[in-house]
């Protein structure tokens, strides 16, 4: 669950003196959303987003907006002219949950990954989504249960032990604060195999002891609260 396991390596980077026109062409061909900018030693000095490049392009709707003479205007504009200095970065051993928090807090699409002062990769929103899908076991399919965790300490451990005693194989477990109930937490359990039980059997058994919020089976969500 670390950045190094999910980041994009061999990242497409720009030099400080790279042409913005060249970057725009790469953006169009490779569908890249951000370019780290590095110095001659490979150190991170800035970042250029797709928005930065679009903002630098002349408008085709405004006559005279572009200076197209050789040696002027866009022909001399470089990554160093439009980059954001000292961008937020993360080391390769940062937790993916930390990355998600930084992306939300700073409202950015990706973070350069820097070890020892050198750029070694980039971690993007898409990488975080891939991580979440894999962690949640969504690619494996199966059922999911949302369960309220109000009660004494150890209630989650009891729940998981009970699932195992039923012969149920679960692939992932998440807990999170319930946004609608202050101080309350919920558990979200993804299940790969119900054993010899039906989804209705499992729901009935769980409801005897726990507050079952919902379950998802075959892509259909059934609310129980």
Helix content: 25-40%
Question: Any idea what the shape is?
Answer: elongated
> Quick check: average pLDDT?
86
Compute the number of strand runs: 11
Oligomer type:
single chain
The structural class is alpha+beta
Largest sheet strand order: 8-9-7-10-11
Largest beta-sheet characterization: 5 strands, antiparallel
> Order of helices and strands, N to C?
EHEEHHEHEEHEHEEHEE
Strand proportion, as a percent range, falls in 25-35%
Give the end-to-end Cα distance, rounded to a whole number of Å: 33 Å
Walkthrough of the structure:
It is elongated and about 70 Å long. A five-stranded antiparallel sheet has the order 8-9-7-10-11, with helices on one face. It has a four-stranded mixed sheet with strand order 1-2-3-4. The chain has a two-stranded antiparallel ribbon with strand order 5-6. It has seven helices and eleven strands. The two termini are 33 Å apart. The model is unreliable at 60-71 (pLDDT under 50). By secondary structure, the chain is an alpha+beta fold. The relative contact order is 0.13. A hairpin with a 5-residue loop joins strand 2 and strand 3 (44-49).
Any descriptors?
single chain, 225 residues, alpha+beta, 5-stranded antiparallel sheet, 4-stranded mixed sheet, 7 helices, 11 strands, elongated
Task: Write a brief caption for the model.
With 225 residues, the protein is α+β, with helices and mostly antiparallel strands. It is 29% helix and 28% strand.
Secondary structure topology:
Layout: E1 14-15, H1 20-30, E2 34-38, E3 44-49, H2 50-56, H3 79-82, E4 84-85, H4 96-106, E5 110-115, E6 118-124, H5 125-136, E7 143-148, H6 155-165, E8 169-177, E9 185-193, H7 199-207, E10 211-217, E11 220-223
